[in-house]
Structures are given as C-alpha cells and as structure tokens.
Amino acid sequence: MNTRSRIAFAVAAVAGAFGAWWALRPSWQVPLPTAATRAEVRMQDFRDALYFPVREFLSGGNPYDPAAMFAHWPVRQSFNLYQPYHLALHLPFALPGYRAGALAFAVVSLLLLVVLAAMAASRIRSRVPLALGTAALAALLVLSQVGKAQLYLGQVNPLVAVGAAGALLTRSSHPRLAAVALALAWLKPQFGLPLAILLFARGSRRVALSGTAVAAVASLPVVALLVARGGGLGPFLDTIAANLAHATGTDYGAVDSPTAQRVDLAAVLFRLTGWLAPAAEPLALAGVLAVSVLLVRRLDRAGDADATAVADLLTCLAVVVAVVHQPGDVLIAVPAATLVAVVWWRRRREHRWPLAGFAVAALAVPFAHVHVVDSAVRALFSVRAAVTLDGVAVVAAWLVLVVFAARHTARAARPEFVAGRAG
C-alpha cells in the first residue's frame, strides 16, 4: 500500500475499533434474564433463539414447542424454525453462564462481520488493496444500523450471511466449499430455500443439492432425538404446526402486523396498502422467484462479468424479498452490492447502468437507518412509516434491478439476435 492507502487504513481501523467496542457493549452490560427482564431488548435474539433453546434441548425438552419455552425460561419470543443443527452448532455458547455466553457469541459475530467485509473486499481487490478494503468495509458495517443490530440483538445473521455470500462467491471455483457455505445459509430456511432454488437455476445444481443435503444430514440426529423424546413423529409434527401458528400470530412476525420489522414483498405491500391478498406470502415467494430465476439466467448467459455481478446482487435481493425477512437480513448482499457499486461507478455514463447505482443506493437505506434517522422519520411521519421505510427501500432495490436486468438482456433474448449471433 502507498502512503495514502496506509493513512486510510489507519483511519478505518480506528473507526472500526471504536464501532466494534460500542457495538459489543450490550453483550456485557445486559442484565441476567429473569421474568422481570423479559422485555429487555439487548441480546434478546441470543437469549430467545440460542441460549435458552439450547438449554431446553440439553434439559430433555423440545425448544420448538412455544408452550414449553414460555413455561420453562424467561423468554419473550418463541424459538422459530431454525435448522435443528443450530442447537448443536451453537451449543458451546449455551454451556457457560449467560453473560459469558453472550459476550463470546458477540465476539464471534463481530469476527464474522469482518470475514464478510473481507469477502466483499476480495471482489474489488483489483481496484482497492485487500487490507484497506476489508478495514473500510468492516468499519462501515459495525457503524451501520444493520451491523450494530446484529451485535445489539445477538442475531445469527452474520453466520448466515457469510454462508450465503460464500456460496455465491465460490460456486464455480470451489463447489464443495460452496455447498458447505449453502448449508450454513440453510440455518434459517427462509435463506436456504430461495437461495438453493436460485443457485440451481443458475447452473450450480450440484452446489444447491449438496448444500441442502449437508444441512439435512446435519439436522437428522437432532430431529431423531426430538422425535424420540416427544413420543413419535405425529406429536413432533404437531409441535411444528403449533410453532408456525404462534409465529404467524405475533406482532413482530405476522405478515399483516403494522409494526413488524419485515422487508419482504408481501409484508411491505400490506403496509403500503392495508390490504392482504389471499395466500399473499406463497404468491410473493413464487412470483419473486419466477421473475428472478428468469433474469439471473439471462444475465449469466450474457457472457459479461459485470452482468454476472448484477445477477449475484439480484439473487441476494430475491432471497430477501421473496419470503419473510427483516432489515438485518440484507447482510447477505454486502459482497455483491460492493462489486456492483464499483461496476456502476465505472459504467455510470452508459445507458441503463444508472439503474444499478439506484438499486445499490436503495439497498443502503437499512444500513443508514440509525437512531437519529429513525427518530426524524417518526417525528415527521409516523411509527408505521419508520418501520416500513427499510422494506420499501429493499423492495424498490429489487424492482429497479429487475428493470435493469430485463432491459440489459432484452436484445440478447430476442430470437433474431440469437439466430444472427449463431449464424
């Protein structure tokens, strides 16, 4: 690195260190969970979706049973349908005391954010030194609302994001590694399912099938144990049905909740219109995937590395808007968005490419939605506007990229063009 790059690296490192310290504070300041502190927001996802579910599993119970979790532990949220292997993978964080486990988990999550930044920097290393890019992007992540929220709430999204981004980044060069990465993305099925479908459609069939199989095989021992404990497959399936029914009826998870932090298409349309179509969520899932599959395949066939970069970003956005997701889930798009931002800057004066820049700018909204911005939106508009802003921005980013991809590939998709090129 030259002198200017070294100075920039030092500034980014200092800013990132401060942001990391600030974001890690909740993990050692959070009070011990009791019935009186159920409403505590700090590390609530670590408490409700990791620490006590694993403790319930270790004590011989079924953490997927909402009634059991609420009866046995001081949790505010039910344990959603994470992959069962989650209970084994994160077991080390539930073995020590609560604060020690919370701090260890937050530190590992911070390191995963740095890994995600390094993955993003590796995509632009021809223009920015890898060390500088990693430091700058890591600092931006831990100072952004999305990055801080991962550590403040104790979410597993950093691991899922590394898995999803890794599957996209290595699907051609290292398919076995990509399959393992996809299995990590399957930790939350709302990531794994649409991503596997899109990877399969883009020609990475072995990665899609192998990654899904790895996740399933890793979960089988846990499922078998839960089925045996619960008295058979029937009671286990009843528990899963009760889990789904509870999740869809909560203020923070229901598609028709006016306050839920959701950014998927079905929830955003309800927020904007107040109308919920019959079967809105499966229709949104099918529609988003159908449109996105068609366009990412066209972009891949364009034979242009820049078009492939857009296809990666469109894949990430489709995963997020297709099915229930929250603002922090846009982490998976960081490496792809970084590359598309650089491509847009290089080609910004060319026809259609400003659309790609607009999509990246819209995707930046959840990252910039810090407390001062949220307070201003609430004061000027309403609480509903504040919780809808991120979703509108993410859906808009997907729609703009759909328009860009359709226009960019329109000429290549015309039969006469294909015939002429073949001749």
Automatic annotation (TrEMBL):
Domain of life per record: Bacteria
Indicate how the chain sits in the lipid bilayer: Multi-pass membrane protein
Q: Where in the cell is it found?
A: Cell membrane
Family matches, as InterPro entries: GT87
Keywords noted in UniProt = Cell membrane, Membrane, Transferase, Transmembrane, Transmembrane helix
TM spans, by residue? Answer: 7-24, 100-121, 128-147, 177-200, 207-228, 275-295, 307-324, 330-346, 353-373, 385-406
Where does the UniProt entry say this protein principally localizes? membrane
List, alphabetically, the Pfam families matched.
GT87 (PF09594)
Q: Would you identify the family this protein belongs to, as annotated?
A: Belongs to the glycosyltransferase 87 family.
Q: What is this protein called?
A: Glycosyltransferase 87 family protein
Organism, per UniProt? Answer: Actinophytocola glycyrrhizae
